[in-house]
């Protein structure tokens, strides 16, 4: 006989998954049980067209904000959430200063994913301007 391999036990602490008709109806209950008081639902136009995100946000918070339109809504929602939670306002809140901006701006321009995922063409000036405003956006 070969060598004996000791048994190993793996404990998964994650909550089980729910599937099937009506599973989405439990989202509010599940979040309340976990102590959540706020939720940010992020989606795109394709998923939004199915109606699932609208249904989920309606179950979480009746009358929740569900903006339609341009991609600028997500940054605005994240900024509101950051303000509400008292998070640092930009990279300045975590110690970066205006003099620190050129290096990340140059690095961002070289990234392949930026031109592939941006909703419009992005220039070096666009990135530098965004980075220059980043130390304190509000």
UniProtKB/TrEMBL annotation:
The family database entries (Gene3D superfamilies) matched by this protein are listed as: Dehydroquinate synthase-like - alpha domain
Record's SUPFAM superfamilies?
A: Dehydroquinate synthase-like
Q: Where is this region: Disordered?
A: 1-23, 112-138
- Protein name as catalogued: Alcohol dehydrogenase iron-type/glycerol dehydrogenase GldA domain-containing protein
Organism this protein belongs to: Saccharothrix algeriensis
